[in-house]
Every structure is written in C-alpha cells, then in structure tokens.
Design goal:
Layout: E1 5-6, E2 25-26, H1 31-36, E3 42-48, E4 53-58, E5 62-63, E6 66-67, E7 71-75, E8 86-89, E9 97-102, E10 108-112, E11 129-134, E12 138-145, H2 158-162, E13 171-178, E14 181-188, E15 198-201, H3 204-210, E16 218-222, E17 227-230, E18 233-236, E19 238-244, E20 250-255, E21 265-271, E22 279-285, E23 288-294, E24 300-306, E25 313-318
Parallel strand pairs: 8-12
Antiparallel strand pairs: 1-22, 2-25, 3-4, 4-7, 5-6, 7-8, 9-10, 10-11, 11-12, 13-14, 14-15, 15-16, 17-18, 19-20, 20-21, 21-22, 23-24, 24-25
Length: 321
C-alpha cells in the first residue's frame, strides 16, 4: 500500500512518500520519427484500445522548415514510439498541444495551451480544444472551440470564470473526462493563494460541435493547493495533467509554472472523490511529469515526462489506495 503525505496550506510534508516502483525510462524513438521531428516533448497521454497503443501529444512537432504538424504519436504498451505519427484530419496546424484524454463513445479530447508564444502572440492553432475520433490510423475532428472565447453570465472572460487575474494569460495543460463532464486544468496563472484551478465543462461534445460554450456550462470545479517547499519558501505548482480513475478520484500532475520560482521537479497528487485536499503521492526531483492516464489493463497508471532535449521518458505507476 502506498504511504501518502498530505499537502498542507504551507507546504508539502514528504516523510512517507512512495518510492518509485519503476524509475522513468527512455521512450524508444525510431530513427524515421526522429528525422521528422526536431524535438519530442511528451505533454499528454491516453490509451486507445482500438489501436492497442497509447496516444501521446508533444509540445512541438515537425522540423524547423515545417513546424506544428497536426500529429499525435503512438506508443506501444512497452514504451516504444511507432515510426509514423497519427495525422489529425480537419486542421492544418497544431501548435503547443498539452493534453489528451478519453471522451465518450471511444472519442478523445485534445487541447492546446491557449498561451502566448515567445513572441507574445496566440495564433488560432494555439487556441484549440478538439473533439476527435479514430478513423483507421488517423484522427478526425468532430468539433473544436477556442476556450479563450468563453464568457461568464456577467460578461467576464475565461480567467474571470476561473477566478484568476484577467491581466495574466492562461496556460492550459490538463484534461480529464470525469462523471460526464470535461475537466480543464490550468498550469497558470495560479490564484492569489498560489493554488491551481480546475474548470468543469458540461455538455462538452455539443459545445465543440457548435463551437460555442453556453452561458453557465463552464464553471469552477476546484482549487487544489499543490505546493512545494524550497529553500524555506512555499512554491505554488500548476496542473500539468489530470486522470480520472474508476473510483471517482483524480490523479494530478503538477509543475512550477513558467516564470515562477522553481520547484526542483514535478510531483503527482491524488484528489479523492468529494475531497478538496490533494494528497501528495510522489515527488520527481529534476523531472517534469507532463502526462498521466489509466494503463491499458486499468490496474495502474502510465506517465510521460518532458525531458527537454534529452530522450523522452515514460513510467508505470500503481493506482493510489
């Protein structure tokens, strides 16, 4: 049984945190795939029973001459990428995809970050929430919308709905289809208390089909405190992915947002059904856990790690108890 450490309002207590059941190991990348992609930075993962593969999204796709290819990568249950990507039909570009999760009836949801690029711009290809279905070895777009276009009943925008500072730009990195609704996790900004925010979108398939979020369907789901203590200071973390578990609980991955004090590496948390306090499962010193999903057998978790310019990593993990 995993020994768990509670997240407090001040920081994280690490005694009793679980040991790695298996250290993250490199994902095997075929030379053909490496030639077609300048960088492979896993940012989200989900299991596809139809393909008998994990679908993995990467922050960057393509090469310098042709970037932002509308591709998702497929990975075997043994941690090897296939030589050819899975093409998303219906869009020309995919810029900064951050999360992918299972949806209803064998479909998938995928989101880009909706954040500004290095030049301070947010092109349409960077502001997409997609609803996808498999068509052979391709993904077809069933619907899409721009979350930044969401409006509260009082006229406020996406960040006002989230209870976040509207002067700061969003960075969305997490999705989970949970109890019939789509959960959307923010990496940034954090609240004034340094907590992360999760939104809940009711009727997601219809919203994406019409490209419109009806008033009141996008609401605040929770504000988990995901904190680390570094050099005597409390450091807030944002959500880098979510996974919905069969018992109604959620697993959260978290990292320090860009431009914020470093946390020394990401962490994994557990949010029990009906609870508002996240429980620390494990710290990953020096690593950036970016994607988590229920494993193919339903008995554990699979994680992927953005390893910058080094080979991407993956790991298996037991379900929390």
């Amino acid at each position: 049984m995993l020994l768990l450490a509670l997240v407090t309002g001040v920081g994280i207590t690490t005694p009793g945190a679980a040991r790695d059941p298996a250290s993250p190991t490199p994902i095997r990348v075929p030379s053909e795939l490496r030639r077609e992609n300048e960088r492979l930075e896993p940012s989200g993962v989900v299991w596809s029973a139809e393909l008998d593969r994990y679908l993995v999204v990467s922050d960057d796709t393509g090469t310098k001459g042709r970037k932002h290819r509308p591709w998702v990568f497929s990975m075997s249950r043994h941690g090897a990428f296939d030589s050819a990507p899975i093409v998303i039909r219906g869009i020309d570009e995919l810029n900064d995809p951050e999360a992918i999760c299972a949806g209803p009836d064998g479909t998938f949801f995928l989101t880009t970050s909706h954040s500004e690029n290095r030049k301070g711009r947010t092109e349409p290809a960077r502001r997409m929430l997609l609803h996808l279905r498999l068509a052979g070895r391709a993904l077809e777009v069933l619907g899409r919308l721009d979350l930044a276009a969401a409006r509260a009943p009082n006229g406020g925008g996406l960040l006002e709905i989230a209870g976040l500072d509207p002067a700061e730009g969003p960075d969305i990195e997490a999705l989970a289809f949970h109890h019939g609704a789509l959960l959307i996790g923010f990496k940034a900004p954090l609240t004034s208390r340094g907590s992360a925010v999760i939104l809940r979108l009711e009727g997601a398939p219809e919203a994406l089909r019409t490209g419109r979020i009806t008033a009141g369907s996008l609401t605040r789901f929770g504000e988990p405190a995901l904190r680390a203590t570094r050099a005597g200071a409390s450091v807030g973390r944002g959500i880098s992915d979510l996974a919905s578990l069969p018992d109604g609980s959620l697993v959260l991955l978290a990292n320090s947002p860009k431009g914020m004090p470093g946390d020394g590496g990401g962490a994994m948390y557990w949010l029990k059904a009906g609870d508002s306090t996240a429980v620390l499962l494990h710290e990953f010193p020096g690593l950036k856990p970016e994607g988590v999903t229920l494993a193919e057998d339903g008995r554990g978790l699979v994680l992927v790690f953005d390893n910058d310019l080094r080979p991407p990593l993956w790991a298996r993990w037991p379900l929390p108890h």
